[in-house]
Write a structure and sequence with these properties.
Blueprint lengths: L1 E4 L2 E4 L16 E3 L7 E3 L4 H7 L16 H8 L6 E6 L5 H6 L4 E6 L3 H13 L7 E4 L14 E7 L10 H11 E14 L13 H8 L3 E8 L18 E9 L1
Parallel strand pairs: 5-6, 5-8, 6-7, 8-9
Antiparallel strand pairs: 1-2, 1-4, 3-4, 9-11, 10-11
């Protein structure tokens, strides 16, 4: 499923409020204060994948665990406490890793069944709703009121799931959602000069930096070594691409 903003499609991995119709077809138009012509168009592939047995742990884009790079940051106590957001969170591995008594983590994904499975996973792993939960939400319409902003946002394969034509919208909304002094933590994948189509759509360190430089100060931007990448995301396979890390603080 794609969402059009100003008649430009974006991939349905964008977190979005949806109406699920028969045969997993989705067709809904919703109004937006900033973009009144958002169309949620009929692309049932993502929904059908979950409806026909779901995504098993460790299969396809489900990595079965949080990224080693994120886990290293957690273990080194460099992640801000407070309110955190993980858009496009899938089964919720990152929610579990990030959630503490000092940090509430909100995960978002487009498919209600995926959200249900994530919340089951969190419950099975003793993560209370006060620490972390997953909801069906629209990233581009999340409240930007000061009380609703986030101390920390984690993007891992959310940006690459969006049509490249709306990456400026992604950057603008990230700037709207992160508190001044808060952090946007990006694991940048796939860094791949061969990949011409998607999703996932190819990204680069410099592109992410350029997208965010108006609203954020770059604190770290570099390629990740193999030991901090998920399997097959270290660049060894040129068809898949490499991974990088970008840590940005809101101005």
């Amino acid at each position: 499923m794609y969402v059009q903003r100003r008649n430009i499609a974006r991939l349905s991995l964008v977190v979005a409020t949806v109406t699920v119709l028969t045969n997993s077809n989705i067709l809904k138009t919703e109004a937006s204060a900033t973009n009144p012509n958002i169309n949620l168009q009929q692309h049932p592939r993502w929904f059908d994948r979950w409806a026909t047995g779901g995504i098993k742990p460790g299969v396809a884009w489900d990595m079965g665990s949080p990224s080693p790079a994120l886990q290293k940051a957690i273990d080194s106590n460099t992640i801000p406490d407070g309110r955190a957001l993980v858009p496009g969170c899938g089964r919720g591995y990152d929610i579990k890793a990030l959630a503490t008594s000092r940090r509430y983590v909100l995960g978002a994904d487009i498919v209600p069944k995926a959200v249900d499975e994530a919340n089951v996973y969190l419950k099975e792993n003793n993560v209370s709703p006060q620490q972390g939960e997953v909801k069906v939400l629209d990233f581009f319409q999340l409240s930007t009121e000061p009380k609703d902003k986030f101390d920390f946002i984690y993007d891992y394969t959310f940006l690459c799931a969006l049509d490249p034509s709306i990456r400026d919208d992604w950057a603008k909304q990230m700037g709207n959602l992160v508190k001044p002094g808060g952090e946007l933590f990006c694991l940048i994948f796939p860094i791949n000069t061969v990949l011409k189509t998607g999703p996932p759509f190819a990204v680069s360190l410099e592109e992410v930096k350029n997208l965010l430089e108006k609203e954020f100060e770059c604190k770290q931007l570099e390629m990740l070594p193999k030991e901090l990448c998920h399997k097959d995301r270290d660049g060894a396979n040129p068809n898949l691409g490499a991974s990088g890390i970008g840590r940005f603080v809101k101005k």
